[in-house]
Amino acid sequence: MKYHQINSNLFIKNRRKFTAEMKPNSVAVFNSNDIYPISADSTLPFAQHRDIFYLSGVDQEESILLLFPDAPYESQKEMLFLKETSEHIAIWEGEKLTKERAFQVSGIRTVYWLQDFHKVLNEIMTYADTMYINTNEHYRAAVETETREARFVKWWKEKYPAHNVAKSNPILQRIRSVKESEEIDLIQHACDITEKGFRRLLSFVKPNVTEYEIEAELAHEFIRNRSKGFAYTPIIASGNNANVLHYIENNQQCKAGDLILLDVAAEYANYSSDMTRTIPVSGRFSDRQKAVYNAVLRVKKEATKMLTPGTLWKQYHVEVGKIMTSELLGLGLIDKADVQNENPDWPAYKKYFMHGTSHHMGLDTHDYGLLHEPMKSNMVFTVEPGIYIPAEKFGIRLEDNVVVQEKGEPFNLMRNIPVEVDEIETLMNS
């Protein structure tokens, strides 16, 4: 891994939080992700399942974590099962975790090779009454591929039909959404790498540069700072491309006078950052562009203040909609009649701001968090309002990552990334 090793105390704390919520005499199993094939002998780069990483720190394929807090023997309370390493594997693939190294990473003393899993599990299931299975219940999930986790669940239900079944996901949704201080530091580090990439761009962007050249500059800066690269597929949308919310082609030339919407950010140690900035290709905003930009910035600032403990996500978005409505009226994009006659299910402001303002962020860019429950301190959210005007061939979105505080306004993890018009113009023309 490119990142520095994370102290195993984080994963020990995470496991304690999870097992504290388990039913008596129950077992939980978590599987790594597969390495996905492309064609012939080609594969996609491995990306670890965030749940097993969150609970163990193991960042390796073909790994299993088993938790059994009420086990009759101390050695059975926490167990890791890993792909057995060998000299051959070390030569062809690089070294895998040894049992001792796995303990250093995870804090788990009982480590088996993977071939022992079924034998050990069979003994464990004679003691246990309930199995926690790990299903993906994220509100944005749309999974068509059968995962390693899903295959395990199918196999386990056939093998052990007499046991009770419980779900890991509701526990994970709650505990993963509230970050430990170590996690906030890792997200901050990802944001700091993102800042370096963005500042690099401000002196690089000129008329006629291509979107993919900008992408290459960012990738260079991210990777040289120990990131694997982008936390998500980058959006580098110049001109009217910014009005396609998930534009990812990044293959057009950036023309003088246009704006570039950059929804780009680095990951670090599997933790995401999530930034959006909008900059002028020529280094100066026009008066109209500046007016719309500052309207979006005002919405972002007011929306940020609302992210406090006890706030409900759904009501928060209603209040942000009111602020955006006022700004759109001021810009002349909607009028009072539009507001008076609006459909409550699709308010007038949605014509120009059609997506949500905030989502949980952490190990996943769209991280775990139960949206019907009140916000808590140490949750991390994005704040990302935008105004999109196809008729004027530009769109503007601004996005920061903030930590909800026990009292007062959230702490902005992207406070050092330029966002004010004057600062961006100064840096682009220095």
UniProtKB/TrEMBL annotation:
SUPFAM superfamilies: Creatinase/aminopeptidase, Creatinase/prolidase N-terminal domain. GO terms for molecular function: aminopeptidase activity. Keywords: Aminopeptidase, Hydrolase, Manganese, Metal-binding, Protease. It is an enzyme of class 3 (hydrolase). Its EC number is 3.4.11.9. Coiled coil: none annotated. Residues 6-142 form the Aminopeptidase P N-terminal domain. InterPro entries: Aminopep_P_N, Creatin/AminoP/Spt16_N, Creatinase/aminopeptidase-like, Pept_M24, X-Pro_dipept-like. It catalyses: Release of any N-terminal amino acid, including proline, that is linked to proline, even from a dipeptide or tripeptide. It comes from the Bacteria. Its cofactor is Mn(2+). Belongs to the peptidase M24B family. This is Xaa-Pro aminopeptidase. It comes from Flavobacterium calami.
